[in-house]
C-alpha cells in the first residue's frame, strides 16, 4: 500500500469537496449582494444582512465557512509542497504536459484571491467584529421594544440602568441622527463612528450598515477596480476548480467532461458579471 499516495489523494478529495462548498457559497453571496442594486435605498439589502447577522444557523455556517477556507488553503499549500518535493530537479527544457493553464496558475490565483479577500474582510467583515470603523445603523423598532419592556417592568435592574444610560446618550444625539431615518422607517442609518461615540459601548444596539459601507467603498475608483479584479480571479478559480474537483471525485466521464467545463464557464460568467455590476452601478449611478 502506497501510504503517501493515499494521503495525497485524500487531501485532494478534501480540497475538491471544500472547493465545491465555497463555489456554492459564492453563488448565495451573490444572490444577497444583488439586493444592493434595487432602487429602494437599501431596504432589501439591510433586511438580508440583518437576517444573516442574527440568524443562529447562519452563525454556525459562518464558522464552517471560515474553517473551510482555512483548511482548503492549508491543504492546497501542502499538496503544492508535496508536488515540488516529488520533482526535486527542475526541468531544463519546458515540458509539454497536459496541465491546463488553469491548474498551472491555480495556486497563484489562489494566493492573489487570498490577498483580495483580506482587503474585502477589512472593508466589511471586520466592521462587524469592531476591528475597523465603518457605517452603522440602529433599529428604531428595537429601541421602542426595549422601552416597552421597561414600561412593563420586564427588564432586570442592571439591564435597565444600562439601557437608560444608552437611551440618554442616544436622546442627546437624536436630532442629528434622525436626519438619517431610512425610507422604510425601520432604521437610523449611515451613522459614522463619530456619530455613535460615546454610545458605541452599547454596540449590540448598533449594527453595521453594510449598504452604506458598500456605497462608500465602490464609489472610490481604485477599490471598484480592485474588486472587479477580485471577481475575475474568483471566476478564473471557478473555471479551473469545478472540472478539477469533478475529476478528483471521479465524477468525470469523457461523455460529460465538455458539459462540466461549459457549466463551469457559465457559472463563472454569472459570478463575474453579477458581482462586477455592483461596483459599476455605484461608481456611475
Ligand atoms: C460586490 C461584492 C461583494 C459585497 C458587497 C460583499 C459584501 C460582504 C459583506 C457585507 C460581508 C459581511 C457579512 C456578514 O458577516 O454579515 C461579506 C463577507 C464575506 N464575503 Fe463578501 N461581498 C462581495 C463579494 C465577495 C466575493 C466575490 C467573495 C468570494 C471570494 C466574498 C467572500 C466573502 C466571505 C468569505 C465573507 C465572510 C463570511 C460571511 O460573513 O458571510 N465576498 N461580504
CATH superfamily caption of the largest domain: Fumarate reductase/succinate dehydrogenase, transmembrane subunit
CATH class of the largest domain: Mainly Alpha
Number of DSSP helices? 11
What percentage of residues falls in helices of 4 or more residues? over 70%
Shape: elongated
Low-confidence stretches: none
The largest beta-sheet arranges its strands as 2-1-3
DSSP strand (E) fraction?
under 5%
Termini gap: 62 Å
Description:
The protein has 2 domains: 3-87 and 100-133 and 215-284, 3 helical TM bundles of succinate and fumarate reductases (Up-down Bundle); 136-208, no CATH class. It has helices at residues 3-33, 43-54, 56-86, 101-123, 125-129, 140-151, 157-177, 193-196, 210-218, 221-248, 257-284, and strands at residues 136-139, 187-191, 206-208. It has a 3-stranded antiparallel sheet with strand order 2-1-3. Helix 1 (3-33) crosses helix 3 (56-86). The N and C termini lie far apart (62 Å). The mean pLDDT is 86. The chain is mainly alpha-helical and 285 residues long. The protein is elongated, with a radius of gyration of 24 Å. It binds protoporphyrin IX containing FE (HEM).
SSE blueprint and pairings:
Blueprint: H1 3-33, H2 43-54, H3 56-86, H4 101-123, H5 125-129, E1 136-139, H6 140-151, H7 157-177, E2 187-191, H8 193-196, E3 206-208, H9 210-218, H10 221-248, H11 257-284
Helix pairs in contact: 1-3, 1-10, 1-11, 4-10, 9-11, 10-11
Amino acid at each position: 500500500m502506497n501510504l503517501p499516495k493515499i494521503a495525497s489523494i485524500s487531501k485532494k478529495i478534501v480540497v475538491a469537496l471544500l472547493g465545491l462548498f465555497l463555489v456554492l457559497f459564492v453563488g448565495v453571496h451573490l444572490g444577497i449582494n444583488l439586493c444592493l442594486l434595487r432602487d429602494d435605498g437599501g431596504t432589501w439589502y439591510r433586511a438580508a444582512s440583518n437576517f444573516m447577522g442574527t440568524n443562529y444557523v447562519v452563525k454556525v455556517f459562518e464558522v464552517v465557512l471560515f474553517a473551510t477556507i482555512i483548511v482548503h488553503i492549508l491543504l492546497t499549500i501542502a499538496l503544492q509542497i508535496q508536488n515540488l518535493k516529488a520533482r526535486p530537479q527542475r526541468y531544463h527544457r519546458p515540458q509539454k504536459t497536459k496541465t491546463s493553464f488553469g491548474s498551472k496558475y491555480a495556486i497563484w490565483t489562489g494566493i492573489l484571491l487570498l490577498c483580495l479577500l483580506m482587503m474585502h474582510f477589512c472593508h466589511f467583515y471586520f466592521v462587524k467584529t469592531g476591528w475597523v470603523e465603518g457605517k452603522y445603523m440602529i433599529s428604531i423598532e428595537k429601541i421602542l421594544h426595549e422601552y416597552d419592556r421597561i414600561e412593563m417592568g420586564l427588564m432586570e435592574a442592571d439591564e435597565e440602568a444600562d439601557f437608560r444610560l444608552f437611551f440618554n446618550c442616544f436622546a442627546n444625539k437624536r436630532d442629528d441622527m434622525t436626519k438619517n431615518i431610512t425610507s422604510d422607517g425601520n432604521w437610523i442609518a449611515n451613522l459614522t463612528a463619530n456619530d455613535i461615540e460615546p454610545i458605541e459601548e452599547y454596540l449590540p444596539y448598533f449594527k453595521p450598515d453594510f449598504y452604506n459601507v458598500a456605497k462608500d467603498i465602490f464609489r472610490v475608483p481604485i477599490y471598484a477596480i480592485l474588486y472587479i479584479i477580485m471577481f475575475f480571479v474568483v471566476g478564473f478559480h471557478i473555471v479551473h476548480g469545478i472540472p478539477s474537483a469533478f475529476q478528483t471525485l471521479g465524477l468525470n466521464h469523457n461523455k460529460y467532461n465538455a458539459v462540466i467545463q461549459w457549466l463551469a464557464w457559465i457559472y463563472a460568467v454569472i459570478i463575474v458579471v453579477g458581482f462586477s455590476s455592483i461596483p459599476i452601478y455605484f461608481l456611475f449611478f
